[in-house]
Amino acid sequence: MQDSHLYEYAVIRVVPRVEREEFLNIGIILFCKRAKFIKVLYHINDAKIQALSVDFDVEQLHCNLTSLEKIAIGAKDGGPIGQMEIPERFRWLTAIRSSAIQTSRPHPGLCQDLDKTVQRLFEEMVL
């Protein structure tokens, strides 16, 4: 029998017009300290975002999410935050912001398979 993994996840949201506080779920960040696991999955539906704000810069959103992904995986071009330990990267990625990209509060869970769990959460919360 596999060990259970205690994990945390947060939903990535895009808020095209911050003053209106409307958002779309566009991704998931899942983190497990013991397994040294962190993964970001996202999907951008340009049409839905444009329906909330025709002036929203979707190209910039793509660039910003690519940067978040680089930070999460600790890529060399992820900047100084990408070089932090995994727990610190997760905390930075899920810090409260009032910008166009926000995350939910982190939620805990237990699972046997982290890859399957992040995929299931992505399908349930985003797709």
Automatic annotation (TrEMBL):
InterPro entries registered for this protein in UniProt: DUF3037 (IPR021398)
Protein's name according to its UniProt entry: DUF3037 domain-containing protein
Taxonomic path: Bacteria, Pseudomonadati, Bacteroidota, Flavobacteriia, Flavobacteriales
